[in-house]
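Structure tokens please, single chain.
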Amino acid sequence: MIPELRRKQFEKEGYRVVGNHSVVKVCEYTKKALRAEDVCYKCTFYGIRSWRCVEMSPTYFCDHRCMFCWRDIKYVYPKWQGPVDEPDDIIDGCIQAWQGLLNGFKGAEKTMQPRFEETRTPSHFAISLTGEPTMYPKMPELLDALKRRNISSFLVTNGTLPEMIEKLIDHQPTQLYVSVYGPNEAVYRKTANPFTADAWERLQKTLSMLGKFNRSVIRLTLTKEWNMVDPEGYGEFLKNIDFDYLECKGYVWVGHSQDRLTLQNAPTHMEVREFAQRIAKVAGLKIIDEKENSRVCLLMKEDNANRVMTFEEPKAFKVVPTAEAVPEYLT
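Here you go.
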């Protein structure tokens, strides 16, 4: 299903193709976590162990061509085509490929060996690497298969397949992310460049179902001169949606987005924080955490600010910068 030219490009960029349509890659924060240099904001906010997190997607098909996307949007398809691999085959293949990519860390001087040993048993799947994951026809079965293996899952979607989102109510990921690309349809269309004419309406249907999920997040990838506009408009848009968390994350000038945008489109953390504060004031939210080097703020409703965020650990933890000081549970 993946054209040979695209397959070669994937491998050149560090991806591994699994089966007919899935891809996996080692996140830079996984590498940093193995060297005790840093962790992903998902570790800071939610307790996800970056060194045990498999970043993957069951498809590279997508119905959006987002301007800020670090992927190559020339290789997107708005509808599923070709065979459909089985969920367990995808999981096994992704784990095997991910572990193979990490083999060079074994015995390396800077590697925290207890963490490397834990990569042999991944505990989390970030289903967000490329494409629109909910296009995969067997997504409910994939999530169920991960649960049977005691692997948590964060599923990221652009929300344009509410039919699949409705199916997932009975087959839930650990946390559902919905990306919102603008405070109104005009900004959304300009930034996300969707293939379908009714993408905005379909997103609204997805957002209306968030209250039926155990944990849900709305994600804003804020890009200056594109969708980092009208924070009060975002606040008005968000205040009547039933979600748990809001992530305001600044666009980073990396990957293929460098062909479409400039460094000036990437906001500083201070700009993201100020924008988030203006959203919060209108939407009744509160900033409860942030990670400056990731340019991201985490918000939630003020009347629910004491909700326990983490599920892997009793509380979120900040990983120390040196291998000498190791969290107690790794000693």
